[in-house]
Amino acid sequence: MGLGSAETSTFMFDFLNKCGGYAVLDGGFATELERHGADLNDPLWSAKCLISSPHLVRRVHLDYLDAGANIIITASYQATIQGFEAKGLSREEGEGLLRKSVQIACEARDIYYDRCTKDSWDFVEDGGSSSRPVLVAASVGSYGAYLADGSEYSGKYGDGVTLQTLKDFHKKRVQILANSGADLIAFETTPNKLEAQAYAELLDEEGIDIPAWFTFSSKDGVNVVSGDSILECASIADSCRQVVAVGINCTPPRFIHSLISSIRKVTSKPIVIYPNSGETYDAENKKWVKSSGVNDEDFVSYLGKWREAGASLFGGCCRTTPNTIRAISKALTDKSNH
Ligand SMILES: C[S+](C)CC[C@H](N)C(=O)O
Ligand SMILES: N[C@@H](CCS)C(=O)O
Ligand SMILES: [Zn+2]
Predict the structure, then answer these.
(1) Which residue range forms the structural domain that includes residue 163?
(2) How far apart are the C-alpha atoms of 317 and 249, rounded to whole Å?
(3) Whose CA is nearest to atom 4 of ligand 1?
(4) What does the record give under GO molecular function (predicted)?
C-alpha cells in the first residue's frame, strides 16, 4: 500500500481541490465516545473501546460524517501493541485491534456513502453532494500518550528515552497502520522534536509510502509543549517526503493563529489545525477541567483569521463535538458561496 513520490506530493492539494479548497476534519473522538457513555478511565483511554465497544467507535465516526467531516481519524490514538500486551492480549491480538480501528472507520464511511446514495434526492435538495470526499486517517498518538499520564502535554520523556527508543516503540504499529487500508497516517499531539524526528526517520527507513501529517501541541502559541521550537518541529515535517500536511492539534484556540504564522514560514505544505476547546486535562483523574473553554460560536469565530494565516484543513480535538464540526462545515460552506 502506498503512493509514488509524485502522487504523494500532490495528494493533499488534490484532495483539497476536490473539497472546494478547504477540508473539514472530525472533532474530539474520545470526547464523543464519552458522550455516548464510554468510561475511558483506563491506560488504553479511547482504545479501550476497540475491545469493549466497537459499535460505539463506528457510531462516533458516523456522527462526525453526518456533521460534515471530510476526514475521520481512527480510534488508534492510544492503541499500541505494548499497551494491549500490558492488558494480557497477545501480540497478534494487539495487531488485529490496530487493523480493526481502520476497518471500523472504513465501514462507517461505507455506511455513510450508502445512506447518501439512498437518500440522494433529499441530499441534493439539501444542498449537499452525494460524492463528498472522505478520507480515513489512522491516528498515531505519541509515546507520551501510551504512558497514559498526560505526558503528551509535557513532552518530557527524560534522558533515558532516545531517538532509537521512540523509533523502536512506534515501528511495528506504524507498519501495520500503513498497510491497513487507511488513506493516510495522522501523527497527532506530537509533543517534541525528538518524536517528530523519529516519525520522519521511520517513514523514510522503512520505505513507508502512505501519506502522513504531523501535528504538534502547544501551550503558549510559540513553542510545542516540551519547549522545542515549532519552527524546528515543522521543518522536520516539511523535509519528510511522505508528509502531506503540517499543523497543530489539541491546543487552545487562542494560540492557533500565531502557530499557523510560524509554520507558514517553514513550509508550503497544507496546514492542518484541530484545536481543543481550551480546557485543561487532569491526567490523574483522566478528566477535562472546565476552566476557560470556548463555545462553538467562539471557536468558529476564529476560522477566518486561521484561513488568512494560511491553514486549509480545520477540525476539533478534545472536548469539541459534532456540533463544533457542523459549525465549522457551515462556516466554510457559507464563506465559499460568497
Ligand atoms: C490527549 S490526552 C487527553 C489522552 C489521554 C492521556 N494519554 C491519558 O491516558 O491520560
Ligand atoms: N484523535 C484523538 C486525539 C486526542 S489528543 C481524539 O480525538 O480523541
Ligand atoms: Zn486532543
Answers:
(1) 5-336
(2) 6
(3) 145
(4) S-adenosylmethionine-homocysteine S-methyltransferase activity; zinc ion binding
CA of 290 to the centre of ligand 3 (A): 15
Distance (Å) from CA 125 to ligand 2 centroid = 34
Query: How many angstroms is it from 77 CA to the middle of ligand 2?
Result: 6
φ, ψ of residue 253 to 5 degrees: the values are: -50, -35
In this predicted structure, the answer to whether residue 31 has a pLDDT above a threshold of 80 is yes
- 233 carries a ligand binding annotation: no
Give me the helices (H) in the chain, please.
5-19, 29-35, 48-52, 54-67, 81-86, 91-118, 120-125, 143-147, 163-178, 193-205, 230-239, 256-266, 296-301, 303-309, 322-336
Ligand 1 pocket residue status of 319, Cβ below 6 Å? no
Residue 317 assigned ligand-binding role = yes
Query: What pLDDT score was predicted for residue 122?
Result: 53
- Tell me how far apart the alpha carbons of residues 280 and 295 are, in angstroms, rounded to a whole number: 15
Does residue 38's CB lie within 6 angstroms of at least one atom of ligand 2?
A: no
CATH number for 305? 3.20.20.330
pLDDT of residue 338: 53
Residue-wise pLDDT for 143-168, tens only, equals: 999 999 999 999 999 999 999 999 99
Residue 120, classified by CB atoms within 10 Å of its CB into exposed (0-12), middle (13-18) or buried (19+), is middle
Rounded Cα gap, residues 38 and 287, in angstroms: 13
Nearest to 279 by CA among 299, 259, 261: 299
d(CA 84, CA 60): 22
Question: Measured on CA atoms in the order 115, 116, 119, 123, is the torsion positive or negative?
Answer: positive
**DSSP reduced 3-state for 88:** coil
Tell me the CA distances in angstroms from 140 to 67, 112, 147, 214, 262, one per residue in order. 23, 24, 14, 10, 24
Number of domains in the chain: 1
Ligand of minimum distance to the alpha carbon of 78: 1
